[in-house]
Amino acid sequence: MRGLLIRKLLSGLVAGGAVAALLSTGTSATAAPQDLKTVPFEVSGELPIYPKALWKNGSSGTNVRKVEARLVQLKLLEKRYLDNEFGTMTRSAVKKFQKSKGIPQLGYVDQNTWDQLAKVTHEPTQTELYPPVPVVNGKKLDARCATGVALCIDKSTRKLRYVVDGVVKMQLDVRFGAVKTATREGSFTVGWKSRNHVSKLYDSKMPYAMFFSGGQAVHYSSDFAARGYNGASHGCVNVRDLAKIKILFDQIHVGDKVIVYRS
C-alpha cells in the first residue's frame, strides 16, 4: 500500500511539472515559433510565392539584349556579355542592380525590377544594341567580334585578330588543321590556358596554348615558324610570331570569346 501511494505522489509531481513548464513558456494557440523566418513575398502554405519572371537564366532574344544594354549603361555588365543570352554574367548584374535598389536579389527580371531599371536608364540606341562591326582593310569582321574581348579568327584570310570592344589591337598570321583534322568553326570561349603545354596525344610542344574547343587551341608553333603554310596542324590554330603570342597570352582570359569563321 505504501509503495502505491509513493507512485501516485510521483506521478502527480511529474504532471504538475509539465503543466507548469507549459504555462511558463506561454504556450497558446496564438504563440509564434521562435525560429520563424520571414520571406519577401506572400506565403501559401509553407512555400513563398515569388513574382513572375519576365526574363531569367536561359532566356534569349531581343528583349534580353535590351536588358543587357541597360545594365551596360549602368556599368553593371561588360559589353562583351551583350549577346541576347541571359547567362551567368547577366544574372550577376541583375542581382547587383536589385541590391542597389533595396529589392530582393532574385537574379531574374520581374516586373518591379524592370520598372526600376527603366527609370534609371534610357532606351538603348541602335548603336548601343548592335555596336558597329570592326572593319579591317575595307572588310568587315564577323559581327560576333564587335563587342567585348574576342579572338576573331578568319580562315579565309588566315588571320587572327585580337579585338576589344570593336577595336583591333593585334593581328597575327595563323594556319589551321588539315582536311582530316579540320579546325572547327563557330563561336567558342577560352576554356583554359597552359603556358608550357605539351600534347599527350602527339607528344609535341604547344606553348602559350589557349584552349577553346576540346583539344583545339590557339598556340605558338615552331613548325609553322619554320615551314610556313607548307604544313598544317592537327586542328589547332597555329601562330608563328612568338613575340606577339607571348603578349596575347597574357591579355586573354578564361571566358573570352573565340570566333572561328570564313569571311
From TrEMBL:
InterPro entries: LD-transpeptidase, LD_TPept_cat_dom, Peptidoglycan-bd-like, PGBD-like_sf, PGBDSf, Transpep_catalytic_dom
One Pfam short name: PG_binding_1
Keyword Signal: yes
Coiled-coil portions: none
A single Gene Ontology CC term: extracellular region
GO terms of biological process kind: cell wall organization; peptidoglycan-protein cross-linking; regulation of cell shape
Keyword field: Cell shape, Cell wall biogenesis/degradation, Peptidoglycan synthesis, Signal, Transferase
The keyword Signal is annotated on this UniProt entry: yes
The protein, known as: Murein L,D-transpeptidase
Organism: Kribbella soli
Lineage, broadest ranks: Bacteria, Bacillati, Actinomycetota, Actinomycetes, Propionibacteriales
